[in-house]
Amino acid sequence: MRGTFLWRNRVLLTGGVLLILSLHLISTGVHPGDLAARPESAFLEIISPVAAAFTHLSDGASSIERDYLDLVHVRDENAQLRIELARVKSDQARLAELEVENQHLGELLELRDALGTNAVAANVIGSDATGLSRTLVLSSGTDNGLRPGMAVLANQGVVGKIIAVSPNASRVLLIDDHNSALDGFDQRTRARGIVAGMVDDGLILKYADRSQDIRAGDTIVTSGLDGIFPRGLLVGSILSVHREGPGLFLGVKIAPAVDFRQLEQVLILTQPPPHLEDSDKD
After folding, report:
1. Quick check: 209 pLDDT over 80?
2. Residues 185 and 192 sit within 8 Å (Cβ to Cβ)
3. I need a labelling partner for 183 at 20 to 30 A (CA). Which of 20, 50, 90, 123 fits?
4. With contact defined as beta carbons under 8 Å apart, do 147 and 107 qualify?
């Protein structure tokens, strides 16, 4: 019976003994080397590695948390820097484009001053989409004083003439369209002909007499006799001259001075060539 009582109450009895021992240690104190200090020393010896491990894990967790927060901060800063860099590049591209446009506009204004005539600059905003004709669409129209028949130029040379207008836009027939024609001549030999476009692309000089000295590489300029383009504007250079066959005229192919596909800005002459005005006054 006694053994059964002790066994059944072992937890309570053990707790009481430990409590009494603790109270004794607190009341009397423990000196180094005492027997009572040995259990505590053993307990500290056992618990110290565990405590150290927990401290290390805690420090490691804190370090990982700090590193993570630093990484998130750096990532956010990098994202912001990328946004700022993209904005700077966009601004640089916009400024570079404005600089190029201003340069082209300045060259067009110099051309206007050299011609000594009234003119309007316009942006190219479109081109023919059907392939049936070769035209450009400009950003200026009747509100800017434009009307059909006006000459259109670029810094490099002749572009074409206006064939249709609206208040804020106009359409230009390019000189390489098969419906286009202008009076021109060989600057070296003064041989005249009609510069016309071909259906399958390109320019030719029509009605050039076979007796004329016309060679590849010669420069073709406007004669001013068509009443649209002033005299002496660059049209292009001769690519080839064919004399085969019994015909009266030479077969002359011309390379345009202007790359029509690269045009961004043009100059429209808003008054006829000066010498035609003078002849009208007479």
Report:
1. yes
2. yes
3. 123
4. no
pLDDT at 48: 56
pLDDT for position 282: 39
pLDDT at 60 over 90: no
Q: Tokens for 201? A: 């692309």
Q: For the stretch 139-171, what's the b/e string if a residue is b when 16 or more beta carbons lie within 10 angstroms of its beta carbon?
A: bbbeebebeeebbbbbbebbbbbbbebeeebbb
Whole-number Å distance between alpha carbons of 23 and 39: 15
State the sign of the Cα–Cα–Cα–Cα dihedral 241, 219, 266, 194. Answer: negative
Q: Scanning the structure block, which residue is given the tokens 């905003």?
A: 125
Between CA 8 and CA 69 the distance in angstroms is 55
Report pLDDT for 73.
77
For residues 23, 29, 30 and 36, what is the CA-based torsion angle, rounded to 10 degrees? -30
Q: What are phi and psi of 182, to 5 degrees?
A: -145, 155
